[in-house]
Amino acid sequence: MAQNRTTNGVAELPVSGAAIKSGRSARGADRRRKLIDAAALTFRAKGYDATSLQDIADAVGIQKGSLYHYIETKEDLLYSVVDAVHTEMHTANSAWREAEAPLDRIRAFVEGHVQFSIDNLVYAEVYFRDFRALSEERKTHIIAARDRYEGALRSLVEDAIAQGVVREGITPAMATRVLFGMMNWLYYWYRPDGPLSPEEIVAAIRDYALASLQAPVVPAP
Question: 156 and 99 in one domain?
């Protein structure tokens, strides 16, 4: 999975032009980048509802009125953060497509998803915690993309069931919900200064995920 360069702990994800007004200059693009990073950090720290446009303007170091060169509403900023996450996550987590065995594909999918969340912790937290504050139209767009992404993992579980490599009683829908619950809750408890390294976190969640699915090994007679 591609690694995103980070500045002040915020991964530089590509920003959708759907919510942020386009700028024609490199300086304008850089200002948009800083604006989205500041919004992500402020939303994470204060929560979307408690964040004001003045908070974000102060974080960027501009007058509040200058924000309207780039946005129309605070929701535009939230949508840009959320859209950047789901767009990049869905494309960056692709190594699983190269694996052949069903459980190897699931292993790679889990590793890629967890690694992305760690690499983009600030954006990921805002995505998972605050996307429901979006308007119904924007929320529908995000949910549709999320469902396609989750459907990819569900298909991998279906393949594993068809090949008999998971334990009895596993159903694709429930297994997919459980696996994403395990992976997505990372934003709530993981901290970079914690006792475990990112590599150890990825390995632990991967191992728990596979252990929940794998069929018991029957000793040879």
Answer: yes
User: Structural domain of residue 67, as residue ranges?
Assistant: 13-73
DSSP assignment of 17-80 equals TTTSPP-SSHHHHHHHHHHHHHHHHHHHHH-TTT--HHHHHHHHTS-GGGGGGT-SSHHHHHHH
pTM of the model: 0.84
What is the token pair recorded at 104?
Answer: 């190897």
131 exposure class (CB count in 10 Å sphere: 0-12, 13-18, 19+): buried
Question: Quick check: is 172 in a domain?
Answer: yes
Same domain, 60 and 82: no
Based on the structure, what is the number of domains in the chain? Answer: 2
Write the pLDDT tens digit of every residue in 19-74. Answer: 555 555 566 677 788 899 999 999 999 999 999 999 999 999 999 998 988 899 99
Rounded CA separation 156/113 (Å): 14
Inside any domain, residue 176: yes
